[in-house]
Amino acid sequence: MVGGAIAAALLIGGVVTLLITNNSSSTDVGAAPAKMITELPDQCSLISPATLAEIAPGATCNAPPSAYGKVTSVSPTWTVTSGVKDSTSIKVTLATTADPQKMYAEAKDSVSSFSSAHDIQNSETLAVGDAAEVVGGRSRIIPAASEARAIGYLRSGAVATVTFTSYVDSSTAVAGAKASLSDILLQFQ
């Protein structure tokens, strides 16, 4: 469908997730973009300082050292620790791949394991990248904690997963995961 959207509904762990894949170009849905992403930005710059100030004030970035050679995946973590019930963690995985749709599908499988450990309270499709979604809820293991997982991809070769964990309500965790994923994917558009 040129200039439109493709929609599909999935039933995962008793939660219906609606996925919308945007196709605003004049090329076929499966066509590769003209330029593939081959380099990743600095890990600690994936989420902007303005977004961090809003969703996790005082967060510090921990970026594991990259392997030698061409970096195809990074996994930085931002943390805020003000006390046991005031901690926040944002974990990001960003990878480049020749087949981002396949990697995105594999990453979405992690939502079913997420559903088994959380009481899902929020689930929505995001209007960023070529396809993106977020799911969030209360932890069954630590009931005072909420967690949200946002997953998105770009046909140009990037797939990102954000896990936002904090002692806040699930809608706040979802907002944090959404803002983080948007920052990451918008750097490549």
Task: Describe what this molecule looks like in 3D.
By secondary structure, the chain is of the alpha+beta class. 22% of the residues lie in helices and 38% in strands. It contains 4 helices and 10 strands. Strands 3, 4, 5, 6, 7, 8, 9 and 10 form an 8-stranded antiparallel sheet that branches. A two-stranded antiparallel ribbon has the order 1-2. A hairpin with a 2-residue loop joins strand 1 (4-12) and strand 2 (15-23). The chain starts with a strand and ends with a helix. Mean pLDDT is 78; it is low at 1-29.
Q: How much of the sequence is in beta strands?
A: 35-45%
Cα-based radius of gyration, to the nearest Å: 16 Å
SS class: alpha+beta
Mean pLDDT score? 78
Number of helices: 4
Q: How many strand units?
A: 10
Sequence of secondary-structure elements: EEHEEEEHHEEEEH
Please give the alpha-carbon distance between the first and last residues: 21 Å
Q: Report the helical percentage.
A: 10-25%
Shape: globular
What profile does the largest beta sheet have? 8 strands, antiparallel
Short description:
It is built from 4 helices and 10 strands. The chain is α+β, with helices and mostly antiparallel strands.
